Amino acid sequence: MTDEPLETADDPAIAHFVRYMRGERNASDHTISNYLLDIRQFVRQKWGETARPPYVWKEPDRFAARRFLAGIQKSGASPATTGRKMSSLRSFFKFMVREDYIGANPFTGLLMPKRAKRLPKVMSIDEVSRLLDAPLKMDSPDAGPDHPAGRLWNDYAKARDRAILELLYSSGMRIAELTTLVDDRVDYIAGVVKVRGKGKKERLCPVGRPAAKALREALELRTLLWSALGRSGKPPALFLNKHGGKLTSRSIERMMKKYLAYAGLNSNLSPHALRHSFATHLLDAGADLRSVQELLGHASLSTTQIYTHVTVEKLKQVYEKAHPRA
User: Fold this and answer.
1) Would you list the domain boundaries of the chain?
2) Is 16 among the residues known to form the active site?
3) Can 307 be counted among the known catalytic residues?
4) Which of 159, 209, 250, 294 has most Cβ atoms within 10 angstroms of its Cβ?
5) Which of 16, 198, 213, 257 is labelled catalytic?
């Protein structure tokens, strides 16, 4: 990785840990980058800004681990961020114990800060419908007078945006999974899309009839746009930006905020709210938790159980409004 911190990249233990994460854990570059940033923060606190590898990993003890935890908390980091950083260091030192770099893990047994349970933001079925209809009602973004495709781009952008929103809600896939989709991963006959999720694990996501229809319409216009841009060969992704390149997660977030505002909905919602809504609406309609876990690509059932809390909270609200002695 080109973005590995200079002061950690040449340490033998860290280099070995990165190889392990890539080869045996199949970790993504993003995950490894986060680990390296947390390790770098510990290195700076323990040995100072000018420290250079190789580091003496046998030196850190439980007091050093506690100082690191205290430093993170004093910086104002959230419990979630604190927990992630401590988990990173615990995993790294556990690896070094196993590989005989050190004799004991100084982060073992440290109490983690309790994370506040926050329920995911979920849209109602009516709110989802208003959002999905917004691209057809709102003017599409203007590519500018010099754009070679002209009006064709506007038609494609409108169809593309609707297809993206329909697909996110229909399948429950993550936004990062959507941005990496290519044509070969869509099976219209079976009504599924093959996505690559966290840990590079692949799963099949369902595509409902409205989403499939919106996707076909968007791809027909994409073919015309691709030709108008003077391109040949296959497009690089299922959904394109105005230059013919891949859409980024950030651009989809901006796009959704625009339609949320137009539909009179909370513009602070992210595309992940459609994934939350997908899961909650399935459970509300009687789907079993294990099936929803598979559809979301969660490794643990406990991760999926958060949506049962959403459903319970919804029932409590109904009870409080309807029961005369609530």
Assistant:
1) 6-98, 125-271
2) no
3) yes
4) 159
5) 198
